[in-house]
Design goal:
seven-stranded mixed beta sheet; 28% strand; five-stranded parallel beta sheet; FAD/NAD(P)-binding domain; 305 residues; 17 strands; alpha/beta
Amino acid sequence: MHDLIIIGGGPAGMTAAVYAARKKVDHILVSPQVGGQAMWAAEVENYLGYRFISGYDLVQKFEFHVRDFGVQVVEEAVSSLKINGKTFAVETGAGNTYESRMVIIASGRSAKRLGAVGEDKFMGRGVTYCATCDAPLFAGEDVAVVGTGNAGLDAAIQLFQFADHVYVIEAQDHLTADMELQDRVRAEKDKTIMLRTQVTEVHGDKFVSGIRVKNLDTAEEKDIPLAGVFVEIGAVPNVGFLPPEVKMNRWNEIEIDCGCHTSVPGIFAAGDVTSVPGKQIVIAAGDGAKSLLSAYDYFVHNFPA
């Protein structure tokens, strides 16, 4: 029986783990991988202390910090969380069960799918959800980025270094990213911005050879030949393993208060999986710290030595 199980290995989970180690709370961190979505950011310019650092390098520093504190990382995916009175059981896809007196949920989010015909068929064969991982594979090719939030335009900026031409596709009538990113994308020559446009089909043979798009105002459809589709239309919270007692909002985010308490005593939550606005690395890290401090206070008052 551990004092605490932290579910998730992104900035929130890793920060909580470091704070738990400093408080000498018996804990483990359970996550199929360390890093979370932060690992795929090409450029991080707003994390204090680093004028510029890649998401991968920042996560590497986080992980070194965590392991330097001797945190036990269990590289397994959580399949269910069960409430057993005042304790909890975390089950993983590997068939293991871990028990604890407290849980911090920092499971983050996963990329949304387009829902277009052919998307699943060509996943990994031209359809991708990670520009940082795959942009170099499309050197000299025409590609599309679907979505114009910060992640979408960040992907487009990465692709400008490799691709011959980048189509930037958005269902709304305007770009939605920060203005600094919008200005950088608009300044590029080898791009086509398509607003009020939806990708309805991805087609090809063994690999992607093109997409079909639909103008949402005129219903006109046309085919665009290209080799890669980068899907950046947002993400959904990873909450499929949660029991019904954990209250969520209409977006399936875990509802928390300012101390990261959930609706279940002993369960805390932090980072992008929660209802906290602003899905940012620095916010997730800060909430990771808050969640552990709240958990420690709960531990002291409910499990006295």
